[in-house]
């Protein structure tokens, strides 16, 4: 008897056994200035993130196009104007676009009105680059305030990739019988958490050593193996300034090659996975979000 | 080079493994102070344990034919009764781990009794058993806790760090029937894998350890314990070490221990009963507080 999820025919399209979603968080200078605009004079630190725009993003785009991998790029809306030509290239290459707010806001520290304004501004900005109607939202950081799922839908976003806590997509209750599909991630599959480093301001907070490249790749490959075993959905988060260096692009190449090699993966954009999952009847009463809704109705809506 | 240790385990087995999981789920300090209700992402990240990870672990243990002990806060039992019944139906044991994962050192004696009684009532109502084992939630216990455990019918605790095999505990100057099964931090998955974005854990957002290196550490700890003839127990949290990829590591670790062959895999209660029926083979340790240590040392 199997209690965990097991590969189920029909869980993914085209008879594929599991799903892999590659996402890129393109923050540019807002990585620093979104949370703290007073740091605008730190040109050297800002140049870390400019590197992502200048070198990292093109290198990632090349890696994806060489392998025919569709991806989703999450961009704060305020970057659309300054980085329009790069984002046009992303869209022209067939990648999906989504928003991480307008300026990487902490939505849990904003009023309801300010949340709404940021979401609408971000959605409008992404709409300047792409006519796609199924645009995704990723919470920049912090907690998910009550009512945000409804606001995300009302602003015209179709899905989200903001939560941990599951190995397949699930439905975040948005009230009035509505729900927002989330394509959840795990913290292992995240290049910045493994590799980002800065002197001042300190990144990460405790300035632990940069992780071993080979070990991180092996962690990713083990998560891929676990995902393959049970037929799950694996979400990778990359950042151009981190994964797009000459030394680390090799990890991206080798991970993508390992995914493609199996021939069993449905490598899809976040939007494709979310629309596929919307056909599911729901997450079921056992799902933690449903439990949370019963135990503490005010936590989500 | 290794001297064959004095045999202390059943059937001449060389060492003992008490595989143990702490099913904290979303319980913990944020649930004790109520802040979890404003942190839905943290709640869902914790709930992953009983929701997805425990079923995965039960499958793994069934494949490998190994018993385990699950310390479950009774709030988690209340909200995931079916998963907890499945733990028992699969031949494993459940133990006490607080109601909402309270830190016993912070509770008065009546508060501790109330957590113990409430939790035992939930265990009986939902699972039809009382817990015989105890593992401290969140760090230290209160000086009165061991006496309360003995009074409430607990047979063992698996909380301390001070030996690599079980011992009988001295309570109020007398050797009690409460067994301690020490649990080393090297086999606590928090030290390798736990990560929350906000509030940051680890505090400095240290990197998630290499799975391969972690497996190697765990295997070395087992190899050493087996050589020394001791008891190894784990503090594995399903939400931490049974993600799809880490469950692969967990499986390799259990396979490594099973392959050795002459290791006794037992639940906490089986270990405690063995200790109590063979008192001559196990140490007695007391409440040597800091004052006692200082007097002895001078
Ligand atoms: Zn615990």
The low-pLDDT segments of chain A are none
Spell out the helices and strands of chain B N to C. EEHHEHHEHEHEEEHEHHEHEH
Q: What is the CATH level 1 assignment of chain A?
A: Alpha Beta
Give the neighbour order of strands across the main sheet of chain B: 5-6-8-7-11
N-end to C-end Cα span of chain A: 37 Å
Which value, in Å, is the CA radius of gyration of chain A? 19 Å
Number of strands of chain A: 9
Describe this structure in words.
Chain A is built from eleven helices and nine strands. In chain A, strand 4, helix 5 and strand 5 form a beta-alpha-beta unit. In chain A, strands 1, 2, 3, 4, 5, 6, 7, 8 and 9 form a nine-stranded mixed sheet that branches. Chain A has a single domain, classed as Glycoside hydrolase/deacetylase (TIM Barrel). Chain A is globular. Chain A has helices at 30-33, 43-67, 84-92, 112-129, 148-154, 191-195, 213-230, 240-243, 249-262, 270-278, 288-295, and strands at residues 18-25, 71-75, 96-99, 136-137, 159-160, 170-175, 178-182, 233-238, 265-267. By secondary structure, chain A is an alpha/beta fold. Chain A starts with 17 loop residues before the first strand and ends in a 6-residue tail after the last helix. By secondary structure, chain B is α/β, with parallel strands linked by helices. Chain B has one domain (18-285): Glycoside hydrolase/deacetylase (TIM Barrel, Alpha-Beta Barrel). In chain B, strand 7 (167-171) and strand 8 form a beta hairpin. Classes of the chains: A alpha/beta (301), B alpha/beta (298). At the A-B interface, helix 7 and helix 11 of A face helix 2, helix 7 and helix 9 of B. Residues 22, 24, 97, 101, 137 of chain B line the site of zinc ion.
